[in-house]
Amino acid sequence: MPALPDVAAFIIDGVVVNVGALSTENDYTEAHAAVADQFDEIRIVPRAGIGWVDTPDGLRAPKPDDTTWAWDDANGWWGRPVPYPSDGGVWEWDEDGQAWVEVEEDVDGN
User: Fold this and answer.
1) For residue 56, what pLDDT is reported?
2) Are 61 and 78 in contact (CB under 8 A)?
3) How many domains is the chain partitioned into structurally?
4) What is the CA radius of gyration of the chain?
5) Which residues of the chain have pLDDT under 50?
6) What totals of helices (H) and strands (E) does the chain contain, helices first?
């Protein structure tokens, strides 16, 4: 699979307010010249989305609301604070209990 092109992240007050796909260096140069005065910063990054926030470690998607998810540096994304069990079972996350709960299957396999 070919690599995805970088994007231009348009940032105001530490939040990405717009993104634009780039296919060439000229795309960035032209975009920057046309709108540079409208944003605090325009940064070229591998991925970004509207609403992402600027952190000391780079741009991050906002943390999902009402969760205790933690940032996973290995995946570059938010995840549950406890790894998914690897025993082959079917599990669902219990946010209140902060644990994976095994999903019981009935006799029909449902």
Assistant:
1) 86
2) yes
3) 2
4) 20
5) 1
6) 1, 9
Instruction: Write down the pTM of the prediction.
Output: 0.63
CA atoms within 13 A on the CB side of 26: 0
Q: Which of 21, 24, 78, 90 is nearest to 53 (CA)?
A: 78
Instruction: Specify whether 11 is located in the same domain as 35.
Output: yes
Q: Which amino acid is at 89?
A: G
Residues 10 and 49: their CA atoms lie apart, in Å, by: 10
Query: Are 2 and 55 found together in one domain?
Result: yes
Q: Please tell me the distance from the alpha carbon of residue 47 to that of residue 81, in angstroms, as a whole number.
A: 23
Nearest to 24 by CA among 6, 47, 1: 6
Structure confidence at residue 76 (pLDDT): 80
Assess whether 11 and 53 both reside in one domain.
yes
Q: Report the distance separating Cα 46 and Cα 5, nearest Å.
A: 7
What does pLDDT average to over the chain?
83
